[in-house]
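Contributing new records

If you add data, match the layout below exactly. Sequence lines come first and carry their own label; structure lines follow with theirs. Keep one chain per record. Anything else will be rejected by the validation script.
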Amino acid sequence: MAHDSDRANLSLHAAHLLRDRYARVAEKVGRKGRPRSRFIAERRAQTAAVLVPTLAAVAALTMGCAAVTLLTEHGAYEGAAIAQACVAIVLGAAALAVPLVRRNTRGLLSLASGAVVAMELGWGLVARLSGGRASPWLLVEPAAIFVGVGLVPLPPRVAMALAVSGYLALLVADPMAPPWAHLLVAAVAAGAWVSARARHRRAIASFLKVERLGAAVARLRRMQDQLVLVEKLEALRVLVGGIAHEMNNALAVAVASTQQAARPGQTPEQSAAALKRAEGGLGRIRATVDRLRRFAMASEGVLEPADVAAMLDFALESAIGRARSGIAVERDYDPQVGAVQCHVAALAEALYQVARNAVDAMPGGGRLRASVRGEGDKVVLTVADEGKGIAPDALKRIFDPYWRHTMAGNKSGMGLSAVYGIVTALGGSLRVQSGEGKGTTVSILMPKRG
């Protein structure tokens, strides 16, 4: 039966789900250690992640340039080609060494700084050996500064030192280089340092946002724990009060009937009737204890194959048999479902409670829609009524024990709380949809075990 209604937000069950969700978020957001240590570790990981592909790419390009120099210059700049090959080897070795020092901040910064300095000074030496100011490789020097300082996420102080070493590499290439070369290298070095400083500040701002988010999640977790505790205490208070009331009533009947049976002057018939009433009271106590046990865990026993459609039919007939006429049942059972391995007694109890709810929701009669279908690896047993439905505020508490709104006419008081305990203990789940004036649909989802 299709209803346009909100799904139940269950009190204790929903509280546990929210707490688990917050815990998963906290695991992603939370860090161990002091904030400074966490920030350094995060920056170290970013530096290592960028450094390896950068050094590998520059090493490959440098080796390619060495090959081009040898092929195009025909040995005129053999020293420059050798210098390029040496730079490529150093950078390649540095890229391979990064994984070895990625967990050590000093080692990683030293390796990165050494590789960038080797790249800058190496290209300065290449330019010097290939003609100085006339060398076509002189323009590579600003690019080396940009790659080493602007792309690799290093601390601002280290970036400044590398920018200065880049300018010194220009002096190695040719101290008498034209003014434009000095201005270009100085501008690139200054721009790369400014970029590194701005990147560092953005990293700090982003880290602080994550820290604030982590603190907020921690507060939410504490509040959620308090909410769960309050809900547990409230449910426990209601449960204990309901059980005490139920057992006191049954015990009062049993005691009064026993005293009446033992009173002098009673005829055998009167004594037998009194003892029967006492037995009935004790039976109510036993039934209450049994339902309480079912609420905590399903009945112990072996799994047995059962026709769940026939079980649902029997539960509906049993529930309708105790009500007035005027209730019609529409069935939609999938014949492909077949037998399901389950705890028969426990599932029968849950189905009866659901059917009884649906019947009690329609005191003036109406239609019940029952269905059994497969849904992936689940078997879904659904009972939908045409009753007045449940208000949103009450819908949030339908699984709380002894919540009277959920079980009109149910003397046990456990209602859907018992159904929830049974179904979840059997490895299934419960789905409830309802709206005022739109009836209620209860679905039991059980795993297919055979």
